[in-house]
Amino acid sequence: RQAAYAELRDVEPFTRCGTRIGVMMNAGLRDDMSALAMSGADGVGLFRTEFQFLVSSTLPQRERQTRLYRDVLDAAGDKPVIFRTVDIGGDKAVPYIEASMSEREENPAMGWRALRLSLERGGLLKAQARALLEAASGRTLNVMFPMVSEPWEFDAAKEVFDEQLAWLRDRRKRLPEEIRYGAMLEVPALAEALDLILPKLSFLSVGTNDLTQFLFAADRANPKLAERYDWLSPSILRFLQRIAQGVVGHPVDLSVCGEMGGRRLEALALLGIGYRRLSITPASVGPIKELVRKIDLGELSGAMQGWLASPPLDMRAALQDWASERDI
Ligand code: PEP
Ligand code: MG
């Protein structure tokens, strides 16, 4: 099968009905970038910048960050990379930042993490903004903020970038050719403010790992709960469908960057409720491209609409049967 996927590397993922699906990959380290050419992904839909922080015993200095981001952009060539600003805290604790916290958190996943931490540790975000802007001089920079819960948090983060941009401009430094800002939708509250945040964004990426944890109130790191809820539940799929419908008509690229998109039946469900871009683990790129080429979106979305209106007892089994009948 690996050989079959290698053949698909240069094949563009068009559905049977002729729609181009974006299949991007998730990455976090320099070494991950070799998978871009190997998998034939369209780009990096989520670069988790916190990995550099997690593997380091001290705070990575700005120059080190710049070097990493530049290397990543060099490795990507013409393909886009979406850099997510650090998502530390929660399940991704770093001792050199945690040590400064005054108290232990009872619920770190819902705590002082990601953009919340970046905005309060302003120096951290400033350094990262400068590193990203410098690394992308003369190219396109795609920046995405994690755990945006209310639109003002996006504004506050973007302001930090604007200040750094002005600083570089004043010093006649070469700036990025274009800067595109996006948000992750992984906190359910943001879905209720979609109309308020969309005009600010170039792209929106749904983080189904955290979103599911918050929708079901089920800790994503607790093994006792790992099998309890299904990504193919009507609640999750209806929620995701409403987001996709809310984005229609806005010039905002919508994607899913959670693990869900890399799984066969889950990817089918996402395509069936309106998603056209997935960012997934590199090993899933080949299998998902193959899947895309076998489907007819009209037929798939018809089936999904029926199931979401009147859910079968076992959504997973229904989708599996539907796929098997079509040799998918
Ligand atoms: C997510 O929450 O779905 C996501 C992609 O981000 P992470 O897994 O890094 O929290
Ligand atoms: Mg997340």
Structural account:
The chain has helices at 2-8, 34-39, 50-54, 62-76, 95-98, 114-120, 122-135, 151-170, 188-191, 194-197, 208-215, 234-247, 264-272, 282-292, 297-309, 315-325; strands at residues 22-27, 44-48, 81-84, 140-145, 178-185, 203-206, 253-256, 277-280. By secondary structure, it is α/β, with parallel strands linked by helices. The structure holds phosphoenolpyruvate (PEP) and magnesium ion (MG). Magnesium ion is lined by residues 146, 186, 207, 209-210. This is phosphoenolpyruvate--protein phosphotransferase. It is found in: Cytoplasm. Belongs to the PEP-utilizing enzyme family.
Determine the N-to-C terminus distance.
15 Å
**Helical content band:** 40-55%
Structural class: alpha/beta
**Main beta sheet strand tally, sense and closure:** 8 strands, parallel
Task: Give a short synopsis of this structure.
The protein has 328 residues and is of the alpha/beta class.
Task: Tell me the layout of helices and strands.
Blueprint: H1 2-8, E1 22-27, H2 34-39, E2 44-48, H3 50-54, H4 62-76, E3 81-84, H5 95-98, H6 114-120, H7 122-135, E4 140-145, H8 151-170, E5 178-185, H9 188-191, H10 194-197, E6 203-206, H11 208-215, H12 234-247, E7 253-256, H13 264-272, E8 277-280, H14 282-292, H15 297-309, H16 315-325
Parallel strand pairs: 1-2, 1-8, 2-3, 3-4, 4-5, 5-6, 6-7
The structure holds phosphoenolpyruvate and magnesium ion.
Magnesium ion binds at residues 146, 186, 207, 209-210.
